[in-house]
Amino acid sequence: MEKKKDLLMRIFYALFAVIFTFVIINVFRVNAYHKTSLLIAATIPCIAAITGIYLFMRKYENTLEKNYDKILIIFSIVMFLVQMTLGLILRHDSAWDIGAVNKGAVEWVETGTFEGYYEYFCGCSNNLGPTAFYFIFFKMASLIGITDYYAVAVFVDSVMLTLLMTLASLICRKLTSSARCGVFALVLFAVSVQYWFMAAANYTDVMSMLFPILTYWLYLKSKEAEGKRRIILYLFAGLSAAVGSLIKFTVIIAVVAIIIYMLFNEKPRHIAEFTVSTIVITAIALVSFNSYIFSNHLSRDMAEEKHRPLVHWVMMGLKGDGRYNPADFEFTDNLPPEEREEKISEEIRNRVHDLGFSGMLGLTAKKSAIDFGDGTYGIADMLNFELAHETELKDWIIYGGDHYSIYSHYATAVHISIMILMLIAAYILALAKKEQEQRKSVLILYLAIFGVWLFLMCWETNRRYFSNFAPIIIICGVMGMEMLTRILSELITDAKSRRFKKTV
Prior knowledge:
The protein has helices spanning 2-29, 36-58, 61-89, 96-111, 118-123, 128-143, 149-176, 179-191, 194-197, 204-207, 210-222, 227-247, 252-265, 268-296, 300-306, 311-316, 326-333, 340-372, 380-383, 394-397, 404-431, 436-441, 443-457, 470-503. It is an all-alpha fold.
C-alpha cells in the first residue's frame, strides 16, 4: 500500500514539474510585463546570488542553530518597522474596489452603516469580508481615540505580514530540522523587496496572505498533539480558513490541500475531525456573516438584482488574454437576474468551442505567464493613486515611474529564481526513489500551489491573484535549495570516495 501511495505522489510531482516548467517557459516567452532579454539577464545572477548565500550559510550551521531565535526576533522587528514606515510614507487616497473596502469600513465605524457603498457591495459581495475585517480593527482603534484609519490598516497589515514571514521560517525549520533553512526563508523574504511595501496595499491579496500559511502551520502543530489539544488546533485551523476565505475565498484551497494529504496519510478519525472542524466553522462563519449583513445592511432584492454569478469571472477569463474587460461586465449586468447564470454558462461554452484545443492551450500559456509572471505581485494596483506626500519611492514602485522597470525586473527575477528552485524540488521528488519522506512532508505545499494554478486557469487573469500563496512558493523554494545542495553534496562525497578507493 505504501508503495502505491508513493507512486501516486511521484506521479503528482511529475505532473506539477511539467506544468510549472510550462509556466516558467511562458513567463519568459510571452511575458506581458517585462522584456524577455532583461528578465533572463536579471534572473541568472539572482539564482547565482541566492545559491551563493545559501552555500555560505551552510558553513555556519552551528552558529545559525544557536542564534536562530535571536535572528528570527531581530528580523521580525526590523521587517515590521520597515513595512510600517514605508506604508506611512506611501499614504494615499484609494478609489475603486480598494476605496470601497477601506472607505466603506471607515463609514461603517463613523456612522454605523456603509450606506454610501450599499449598491457597490450588492454587486461585489466578495468584498464585504475584507471591509468587515478592517471595520473590526478600525472600531477598536476608534474606541481608544485613534481615527487615523489608514495608519491602523498599515499597522494591521504589517503585523500580519511579519507574522506570515515568521511562520514561513518556522515551517522551513520544522520540515528540514535545520535552522539554516529557517534563516534562508527570511533571506528570501528580505531580498523580495515587494514585501517591504505591501503594508500600504490595503486590499484582499495582502490581507489574506497570512491565512494559508497560518492554517497549514496549525495543521502541522496538530500532528504533534493528541486528544482535545488536537481538536482545538483543528478548530483554530478552521477559524483561520474561515476568516481568510471571507477576505479572499482562494484561501480555502489550503484546506482542500490538507484534506487531500490527510486522505493518503492520516487515520480516518483524524480526517473526519479536521474536515468537520474546518467545514463547520467556515460554514457557520459564512452563514452568520451573510445573515447579519442582509438583516442589518443590504437589501436582498437589490443584491439579487446586482449580483454577478461566479461564472461571470470564468467567462471573462476566456476572452482575449482573460483579463478584466468592461464589455463582459456590461454583458452580465444587462441580463435579467434570473437568466444570468444560464446565459453566462452558455457564453462560456461558446467561447470554449470557438477557441478549440489549440486556442485553449494558447490561452493557458498566456494566463500562466500573466498570473505568475510578475514578481511585484501587482501591488502597484493598490498604490497607483494620488499620494499624500511627495516621495521618490513612487518613481520606483508606481507604474510609469522613472525607475519602475528596474524594480519590476529585479523583483520578478527573484520571484522566478524562487519558482525555479520550487520546480527543481518537484523534479527531485518525482524522480528520486529515496525521497519518500520528503514527498510526504511537502505534499500539502505543492498541492496548494497546483490548486491555485488550476483555479487561476479557470478564472479572470490577474497578476495579483496568486500572491496570497506566494509565501508558500518561497517555502517550496527553500526546500528546493536544500534538496539540491544535499543531493549534490552526496554525489560529490560519493565521487571522492570512489576516487580514494581506486588510489588505494
